[in-house]
Structures are given as structure tokens and as C-alpha cells.
């Protein structure tokens, strides 16, 4: 082309028209139409025990990161939630690993029921399972995660896409946005909810449960 006039071969065009017309209405009607099932992009119910979703957020400009943790039972009911701020941590991989570690530590009780910890950091999961090797600052955190998993056979970690991990993601984002409010966190830059929960979190959980039963 490049400025030249485009022409069509008339014989080729006629053959194409004939080919298209060869498909009669009956032929088209006999083609089965496959109806796609709606894709539910939400948190999924645990078969038994409870599930802990964790996520992290990083604000490089303020040299701070946060983690969000949300625990729910096999009915989708909110058990507890937490958020924590880490000053000086801007490595995304480290922040994600810290989120997993915090979730495991908060869940590390005497209960023997199955506990599934979900997160959307596949690279950190591979480190925890020994499927990849890292030689940076995340190693110490990953080792702490492995130590807990080795001692608790009812604990399991699993990757979950971001849309399954929305509640934990929103808690981590809230922590960063609320960091400037001193009364939002205790002296350890930590907040824990177990009986009274913020309305925005309750709304997220309610939406998740509705779709989980679809």
C-alpha cells in the first residue's frame, strides 16, 4: 500500500461471495450455541476449618508498607481481621512475605482444624514451597514461614488471584491511607478487629459471601 491504490481481484471476490452464500439459513441454525457460564470473581468458601486471606501494599514515597489480614470460617462469616504497618519496608516481595507470616502467627493457636492461608503473591509461594531460590532480604521471612508450616500439619498456604483476595487487599490499602491517623493504630503500628468491624469491611465480606453461594 504505502500511498498506492488498493485493487481487488474480481474473480477472487466472486468466489468469496459464493462461499459465504453456500451457508444457508438451515446450516447456520444447526450450529449449536454454547452458553458461557458466568465467571464468579470472588472469594471461595473453605470446605472445613477456616481461611485466612492476606495481602500487602507498599508506599515507596513514604517508605512504608502495610499488610491486611482477614479470617473467615467455612460459612463465610468474618472471624477477625487485622492490619499492620512496617516502616522502612518498600520491597514488595518482603511485604508480601510479611503479610503471610503475620497471618500465620495470628492463626497459630492450639486449634487442630484445617487452616488455609491464601494470598496473591505466586513468587512468594514458590519460595515458601522451595520451588525457587532467593538470596535477598526476603529469605529470613520465608524461613520463619517455613518453620511455622513445618510445625503445624493443619496449616496450608495457597495462591489466590487478586479478585479472590479483595478483602485482604482493601484492608492493606486502608492501613496505608489510615497511617497518618495516629489513633488508628496502637504503639506497634497494629490494629485488630474481632467483635466490631468497620462498615466498609462488612460490606466487602457480605458481597463475597453472596457470590460464594452462587
UniProtKB/TrEMBL annotation:
Name of the protein this chain belongs to: RNase H type-1 domain-containing protein
Listed Pfam families: RVT_3 (PF13456)
Domain RNase H type-1, chain residue ranges per copy: 53-175
Transmembrane segments: none
GO molecular function per UniProt: nucleic acid binding; RNA-DNA hybrid ribonuclease activity
SUPFAM superfamilies given in the database record: Ribonuclease H-like (SSF53098)
Organism (species): Acer negundo
InterPro entries xref list: RNase_H-like, RNase_H-like_dom_plant, RNaseH-like_sf, RNaseH_domain, RNaseH_sf
Amino acid at each position: 500500500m504505502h500511498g498506492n491504490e488498493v485493487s481487488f481481484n474480481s474473480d477472487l471476490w466472486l468466489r468469496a461471495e459464493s462461499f459465504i452464500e453456500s451457508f444457508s439459513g438451515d446450516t447456520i441454525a444447526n450450529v449449536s450455541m454454547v452458553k458461557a457460564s458466568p465467571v464468579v470473581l470472588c472469594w471461595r468458601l473453605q470446605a472445613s476449618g477456616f481461611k485466612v486471606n492476606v495481602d500487602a501494599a507498599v508506599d515507596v514515597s513514604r517508605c512504608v508498607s502495610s499488610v491486611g489480614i482477614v479470617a473467615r470460617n467455612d460459612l463465610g462469616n468474618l472471624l477477625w481481621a487485622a492490619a499492620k504497618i512496617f516502616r522502612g519496608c518498600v520491597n514488595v516481595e518482603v511485604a508480601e512475605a510479611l503479610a503471610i507470616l503475620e497471618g500465620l502467627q495470628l492463626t497459630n493457636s492450639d486449634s487442630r482444624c484445617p487452616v488455609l492461608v491464601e494470598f496473591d503473591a505466586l513468587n512468594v509461594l514458590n519460595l515458601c514451597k522451595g520451588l525457587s531460590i532467593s538470596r535477598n532480604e526476603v529469605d529470613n521471612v520465608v524461613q520463619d514461614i517455613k518453620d511455622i508450616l513445618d510445625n503445624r500439619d493443619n496449616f496450608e498456604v495457597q495462591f489466590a488471584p487478586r479478585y479472590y483476595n479483595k478483602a485482604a487487599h482493601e484492608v492493606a490499602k486502608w492501613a496505608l491511607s489510615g497511617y497518618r491517623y495516629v489513633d488508628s493504630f496502637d504503639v506497634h503500628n497494629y490494629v485488630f478487629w474481632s467483635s466490631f468491624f468497620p462498615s466498609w469491611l462488612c460490606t466487602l465480606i457480605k458481597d463475597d459471601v453472596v457470590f460464594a453461594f452462587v
